[in-house]
Amino acid sequence: MKPFSHDAMTTRTSPGPTPPRQRTRDHAPNGVATRVAEALRPFLPPGRSPVRLRCWDGSEAGPADAPVVVIRTPRALRRILWQPGELGLAEAYIAGEIDTDGDLGSALAHVWAGLAGRPAARPRPGDLAHAGRVALGLGALGPRPAPPGAPRARLQGRLHTTSRDRAAISHHYDLSNAFYSLLLDETMAYSSAYWRQPESAAYGLADAQRDKLDLICRKLGLEPGMRLLDIGCGWGSLAVHAAREHHVRVTAVTLSAEQADHVRARVVREGLDDLVEVELRHYRDIASGGYDAVTAIEMGEHVGDADYPDFAALLHRMLRPRGRALVQQMSRGSTAPGGGPFIETYIAPDMHMRPVGQTLTLLEAAGLEVRSTESLREHYVTTIAAWHRTLEDRWDDFVGLVGEPTARVWRLYLVGSGLAFAQHRMGVDQILAVRTDDRGTASMPATPASWYGSGVAGEETA
User: Fold this and answer.
1) How far apart are CA 318 and CA 85, in angstroms?
2) pTM across the whole model
3) Measured between alpha carbons, how far is 219 from 211 in angstroms, rounded to an integer?
4) What local confidence, expressed as pLDDT, does residue 10 receive?
5) How far apart are CA 416 and CA 104, in angstroms?
6) Per-residue pLDDT averaged across 37-61, rounded?
C-alpha cells in the first residue's frame, strides 16, 4: 500500500434507477437538471458550480469535468427543503436518494476545494420563491420524508451526565461486536495505527496496529509487574497487548456493555484473566490510584469541553509519582470544534475536539508535565483508507448485518473523515506526560531513541 493514498477511497455507486447519460437533454431548458441547477445557484457561492447534476429524467447540467451528483428522485429535494444543509444532504445520501457517479472521496474533495475561500451565498426573498416554484413543479413539495432507516442518536438529559454519556457511547460502540469484528483487523484496535512500513506489500493494518501498541508501551516504559489503567479500553487491544507482551497488570475500563463483554471473553480466551481486570464504569467512578501508567486512546474526545479539566486531574490523581500518562486524541482547528450535524446525529454525539495546544495546556494545568507530542495525522489517513477498503470489499456482508442505510452512514463517515485528516482539518496526536514527584523528578529516559527501535535506549534518570 502506498502511504496516505486516496486510491483506497474508491466507492462503488449503489445500484438504483439511475438513467443513462442523455447528451441530447444536457442543459435542455425544460430538463430537470437545468431547472434544479438554476434554482440552486443563488444558494451557492458565486462562480463555477463544483458539481454536475444528473437527475431522474436523465438530464444533466453543470461543468462537464466536475464530479457527477446523481439525484434519483424528487424526494431527495423534498428532504433537503425540509432540512437544508449538511444533515439534509447526508440523509438523502443515506436513503440512497442521491449518490455520486464514481468515487465519493474524489467528489467530496473536489467540492471542498471548489467552495473553499468563496464567500457564502446570500439568497434574496425572490430566490427562495423561485426555488419553491421549481420544487412545486417537480413534485418535490410534500410532507417531511421518513428518516432514512439508520439509527439516529437519541440523547436526553444534561450534557455529560453518566446516563447521557452511557447512551452516547452505546450509540456508537454498541452497534454490535460483529460489526466491528468485520470492520477492524484481528487486533480489534479502533484508533489510528502507526505505519512503520507503509511501502511493504506484506505489511498491513494489523501490523501497523501492533506497531502502534508497541510504541505506546515503550513510551510508557512498561515492565513486568507494573500496573496500567486503560481508560476507554475499546475491544481490549492495548490491555491484551500490554499484559501478553509486557506482563503488566491492567485495569481496563469502558462504558460500553458490548465492549466489556468482548474484552472479558477475549481475556479468558488468551489466558490473561490473572493479569487483566475489566470494569464497566464511567471514568469518573474509578476509585483507586497508584498506577504506574494510564492511557486514554481516542477516548478524551468523549469527555466534553467543560469536563476536560476534571478528566486531566483524574489522570494525574490515578498515577503514582513518576508515573506516565499517554493520551492519543483527535483535534480540530479553533474555528471548527465540533463534529458537525451528521457526526452528531449518526456517529458520535456529544464529542468535542480542540486544537492540540489547548489540550496540552489543560494537562499541564492538572499538574502533569508534557514530555512528548507526536502527530499521527497522516497515519490516520492510511488507517481510515484500510477500514474503508474493508467496508467496500465486504459491502454485501455489512449490508446483511446492519442494513444498507447504516452501511451508507459508515461509508460517508469513513470517506469524510479520511478527507478531513488528509486536508489538515482534523489531527490526531500521541501526548506523553508524567506526574513528577515532590522534587520534580520525572525518571524519563535521556532520549526517546528506545521508543522507535533504533539506537541505544537512554538511561533512566534519577
Assistant:
1) 44
2) 0.90
3) 12
4) 43
5) 9
6) 91
